[in-house]
Design goal:
Blueprint: H1 2-26, H2 46-62
Keywords: Membrane, Transmembrane, Transmembrane helix
Length: about 70
């Protein structure tokens, strides 16, 4: 039961990342997905910040115990 829940949340996170990445590609936004979160985000690029914020906000809401900060 616990294993299934973890697997489901990981699949949903993967879907979420792909969905947000497709949105960013549609609007031709340089996101940090492409650079594995290593590229700095331009503070004037509000759409990138919004997409990134949505990703982290939803990821925190879905799996608070799986987040690893490097």
């Amino acid at each position: 039961m616990v294993k299934e829940k973890v697997l489901l949340s990981r699949n949903f996170n993967l879907f979420l990342i792909c969905f947000l990445y497709s949105i960013s590609k549609t609007f031709k936004v340089h996101t940090i997905f492409k650079y594995n979160m290593c590229e700095t985000v331009d503070s004037h690029d509000f759409s990138t910040l919004a997409i990134t914020g949505a990703l982290f906000g939803l990821k925190i809401a879905i799996t608070p115990n799986e987040i690893v900060v490097t």
